[in-house]
Fold this sequence. Notes:
Residues 575-686 form the CBM2 domain. With 686 residues, this protein is an alpha+beta fold. The protein has a 9-stranded mixed sheet, covered by helices on one side. Strands 2-3-4-5-6-7-8-9 form an 8-stranded parallel β-barrel, surrounded by 6 helices.
Amino acid sequence: MSTLRTSRPALALLMGAAVAAQTLAGIPSAGAETTPVTVTVNTRAALAVASDTAVGTNHAIWDSNLGTNETADLLKAAGVKMLRYPGGSYADIYHWKTHTAPGGYVAPNTDFDTFIRGAQRTGAQPIVIANYGTGTAEEAADWVKYANVTKGYGVKYWEIGNENYGNGHYGADWEADDHADKTPAEYARNVVKYSDAMKAVDPTVKIGAVLTAPANWPDGIVADGDQATWNDTVLSIAASKIDFVILHWYPPHTDVADVLTKTAHIPDMIYMVKQQIAKHAGARAGDIGIAMTEINSGIAYNTQPAALFAADAYAALMEQGLFTIDWWNVHNGIGTVSTVAGHTDYGDFGMLSSAGCTGDVCEPPFNTPFAPYHAISMVSAFAHPGDQFVRAATDEPLVAAHAVRRPNGDLAVLLVNRDPDSERQVKIGYAGFAPADEAPTVSSLTNGATSVTTGHGGTATTQTLPPYSVTTLVLHPAAAATGAPAAPGQPTVSGVTDRTATISWPAAAPGAAPVAKYEIHRQNGAVTEQLGETSVTSYVVHNLVPGTRYTVNVIARDTAGRVSWASAPLTFTTGSPAESSCSVRLTDTTDWGSGFVGNVEITNTGTAALDGWTLGFTWPTTWQSVSSGWSANWTQSGRTVTVTSTPDNRRLASGAATSIGFVGAYSGPNVLPTAFTLNGTVCTTR
Length: 686
């Protein structure tokens, strides 16, 4: 079998060769630290509901054990509910009718029917990649016909190609693409053709288009001859014909410590993708799902850091509503061998051992689970389909927290201790949930462990997390909740200005008593603030901050004081004043994926001339900064940027404008600021 992960450029494979420091970048290990970590879980701050296909992984046709009973049973035991086929970049050279991949190795007994039998035994839905690179829309339509009409397999999800931006159009060339035109526009036009042909055979199939993950190559880059980035171009042409978008994520990193910080990028990454979809899909935006069909730490592949990354990343992506997250890969093969956190790492992207050797070093027996397998198993046990994620947060960067509320009233909490050296005492507080006075069910995966241990220990409010560990708690409520109203329906927003927004929602079904009122709560980390309450199903929120992202939930309270679950979340961003004495336009003129040239045009729209000015704005994230600037004096403190005039442009007559510029740097999703002040006045953003 092939031992190469075939859907990434060689550079990505080399990134795992060096394993460095075992503490988070810039954050020292606590050593004998004894101050408890504060964990806050807030059930009033609801996030997405866990999908029934959320936990997935990849199968590849060069894996001779694809679809075997032993492998399928291991995947079933891990709770895998989505299986991807035929395997990364191989998809763009694979022809399903002949079961061939010219230029690549195809293992025996890995054809489509064998894959489906394995998926059925696993209890997982298939997600299939149609050959875009060397195939045709007709070939893909024939595959849909065979799968769903001839065989009745009911394959719902179909991707159009793999990482097609890797076809050489942006420089790197690893993805097969026989099209003379390799632009994103040509890919999008063909996605439309594929969608039409495949849905003509089976109108129920869901079609996915390939996007790039924000802050990951080639995001932000506009190639020669193009008018926009890959994502904007693809969505502008194909948004009306697709049902989901596809992301792959192998976080750029410097070492093991660094990769564990990258999960902090997930909320902004997915926010940016949703904004891109909304921009081009309009009213259809809510019908277009997001799938992360490849993910891996890209370093310390088989050892505990990859397990910590997997548990944290899966939970964080599920919180954002992704309907599937698929680990790369089931089996992959031995790579560069190293020692990580005291244990042998075989450089193998697989969840399960391939039993390969390099020199005198051999992997453990075939199908031995590696650490990420156990972490993914824990995620499956932690978040069941239909569970609702709720906000959880900690006051310690080395400890991550996630939580779900189950339909039966139970609460589950997932805790990740990223400190390689020290155990952490945690003190857990709950809002909107009262735990039973009993020892919770505790599951733990520790560094070097070959299985997950489960028992009862600690309390609902105090736990000890071993070094480099994943821990889950399952808590029963102190009293069964009966008679409460149902959760309000999905809120929507309208009339958003710089200071106000109108929130509306479908009414909650009453329980044992009539609904008395609805409360609107804003999420601020794991803390919520009540923005208002009303007896009707709409509320105008006032006193908002311009250019600010808000996530809110609605809760129903009945006449007996019983409280519903929180509604699904609603996220919106306020604008700028419709009228002001100044206006600002920020333009990203050139982007290279880790930085950009920004042009800022400032206009004095007031009636009086300005003799000297100060522009202010705040970066949305901690990983953005001004590297240098011109035509003004640029300074940055924390996330706040202050820009002052020079003798050449200090005087702005009424109606006059000046342009200034800067080089911005970013190491995560580059969400641009949308609120600016000039001499303390909030400007209109154009």
